[in-house]
Amino acid sequence: MDTSILDKAKKWTSEAFDVETRNAVQNLIDNNETELTESFYKELEFGTGGLRGIMGVGSNRINIYTIGMATQGLANYLKNSFEGEVSVAIAHDSRNNSPLFARKTAEVFAANGIKAYLFNELRPTPQLSFAIRHYGCKSGVVITASHNPKEYNGYKAYWEDGGQLVAPHDKNVISEVQKIAG
């Protein structure tokens, strides 16, 4: 096994991670080298528009930690781009873990002093786009994997016009996320 993958996985068994995650990663280390490699061989990439991937533990999976990292990168960019109060709208679909990931997104924004309008029920992407403009938000996030199979989830970021991130904002948010990922 590639020692860099094992080293990265072992970090996920530290106290910085919740017990369920630590146990799941330890189980992969002990019993499933193939899945361990798939889960840790790279960082899940924040591309144009956001993240999309298989849910699970690891740096190459959608989970509360990769969602948190993406949100922190977006929060950093928003704080550098706007003066005064910044707000965001957050929506989610009906996929497994979507409400959890939406709450995590709101928590990270709140920890950065960014007001979050979080829908308390599932909402379609067009409603998020409307909410961004209606509430004067600077950005928005929808937790969805769109057309992908049920094992997937995603994180799509939107700008103050209610549209998906486009140049130069997309590349600038990607840069902020990469700073966190290392």
Describe this structure in words.
This protein is of the alpha/beta class and 182 residues long. The protein folds into two domains: 1-41, no CATH class; 48-181, Alpha-D-Glucose-1,6-Bisphosphate, Chain A, domain 3 (3-Layer(aba) Sandwich). Helices cover 47% and strands 15% of the residues. The chain contains seven helices and five strands. The protein has helices spanning 3-11, 19-31, 33-40, 64-81, 98-111, 125-134, 169-181, and strands at residues 50-54, 87-92, 115-118, 139-143, 152-159. It has a five-stranded mixed beta sheet, with helices on both faces. Helix 5 links the parallel strand 2 (87-92) and strand 3. It is globular, with a radius of gyration of 16 Å. The mean pLDDT is 95.
Structure at a glance:
The chain is an alpha/beta fold.
Assess the beta-strand content as a share of residues: 15-25%
Gross CATH architecture of the largest domain: 3-Layer(aba) Sandwich
- Shape annotation: globular
Any idea how many domains?
2
Helical run tally: 7
Topology:
Elements: H1 3-11, H2 19-31, H3 33-40, E1 50-54, H4 64-81, E2 87-92, H5 98-111, E3 115-118, H6 125-134, E4 139-143, E5 152-159, H7 169-181
Parallel strand pairs: 2-3, 2-4
Antiparallel strand pairs: 1-5, 4-5
Helix pairs in contact: 4-5, 4-7
Keywords:
single chain, 182 residues, alpha/beta, Alpha-D-Glucose-1,6-Bisphosphate, Chain A, domain 3, 2 domains, five-stranded mixed beta sheet, 7 helices, 5 strands
